[in-house]
Amino acid sequence: MSIKQENLRKDLDSEREKLRHSLESDREELVSRTDGEKQELAQEIFNIQKERDEALLLAETEKQQQLSILEQEKFTLSEKFKQVHSDLQDALAELEKNKRDFTSKNDQDRGAIGSLNQELRRYKQQLDDAVYGLLGILGLKPLERFFRYNILF
After folding, report:
1. How far is CA 111 from CA 83, 98, 115, in A?
2. Eight-state DSSP code of residue 65
3. What is the C-alpha separation between 66 and 55, in angstroms, rounded?
4. Residue 140 is assigned to a structural domain of this protein
5. Residue 30 belongs to some domain of the structure
6. Least C-beta-crowded within 10 Å: which of 2, 114, 131, 143?
7. If the chain, 153 residues long, is cut into consecutive pieces of 10 residues, what is the mean pLDDT of each piece?
8. CA gap 125, 53 in Å, rounded
């Protein structure tokens, strides 16, 4: 080979070595940068997962608190319902007792009214008999008709 060719080959080998070295350096830099980005992304993923887990935990805690509040309200309403139901049962029992008492009193009053009406009719009859007897004694028998239809019951 000629010196010229030998120099060309050496120059090319040198150039190739420089390129290889440059490519190797670029590759290492790229690998290093990629590893850094991977670590950053991994940290970001970790942070996002941590935030998600904290948000889920907070949501679960709030849900449990709401459930607890609802259970307490349910219990309170149940107790109120039982009390109102008991009061209603008591009121219905008292109403039934009052109805029975009223019916009994009404029956007694009807009996008393019937007795008073009989007594009133008897007294009326006695009064009529007394008036007619008096008219007869006084000799006012012709007025008997007038009194019977106009004055007496």
Report:
1. 41, 19, 6
2. H
3. 16
4. no
5. yes
6. 2
7. 83 87 89 91 96 97 97 97 97 96 92 91 85 74 59 48
8. 104
* H/E element, 20: helix 3-138
> Do 135 and 143 form a contact (C-beta atoms < 8 A)?
yes
2 backbone φψ class: left, alpha, beta (φ>0; ψ -120 to 50): beta
**Number of domains the chain contains:** 1
Asked if 131 contacts 152 with a C-beta cutoff of 8 angstroms, the reply is yes
Structure tokens that stand for 146 in this block: 């007038």
Asked if residue 22 belongs to a domain, the reply is yes
Domain ranges, residue 21: 3-110
Give domain status of residue 119, yes or no.
no
CA distance 112 to 124: 18
Q: What digits encode the pLDDT tens for the residues 75-118?
A: 999 999 999 999 999 999 999 999 999 999 999 989 999 999 99
Cα-atom radius of gyration of the chain, to the nearest Å?
Answer: 60
- Give residue 44's Cα distance to chain centre: 45
Instruction: Name the residue with tokens 């970001």.
Output: 44
Query: Which residue bears the tokens 């007294």?
Result: 123
